[in-house]
Design brief:
Length: about 220
Amino acid sequence: MCGRYTITVLLEELMLKYYTEDVTIKHYAPKYNAAPMQYIPAVIGTGAGNRIGHLRWGLVPSWAADDRSGSKLINIRAETLRDKPSFKKLLSSRRCIIPADGFYEWQNQGGSKQPMRIVMRDGGIFSLAGIYDIWVNADGAKLGTCSIITTEPNALVAEIHNRMPVILRPEDEASWLERSNQDANSLARLMNPYDASKMRAYPVSPKVGNVRNDSKELLEEA
């Protein structure tokens, strides 16, 4: 499960990373402890290029009777994503990237759980693979939501947790966002554990366990 992550860079850095000036976020701020049911920065592909906007974390499919499913669908397993026609359709047509510069997992250590922050060795931004959908309520108001895709852990994460988010290789990001790419089988081949040699993990404060804590000190090594 991927239930917390960080994206602490400036909006301008995201614009450079994803080659776009198309931004619909009105109030952007770094997130040191992004959590489910919050609005998070996400990138989607459009006919005119990439767009950066906000999606609420926790998928509410367009066919849902209400928006309560969001808290249950923060992650979707890569291995079973194509099993249900409804989610396979989203894989084919509504993919997104959730930019991150770290994510948290909790490691069992002798009866207690130590939060760990997992990052790239170069400290850079990386792309979590996701799917999204638009739900419309009875009054016609639209709600854009997303879910982060998870896969088996690489060697680094396996020492901490039994799942990890799908991190796209930089060379695969354009294919993931390309709207004309609707081949679920080829897309599935992009959803692999990321190269462990390019990542590192370090312990952080237990304060990260409280979603109300969202400050730079959470990034410090404990």
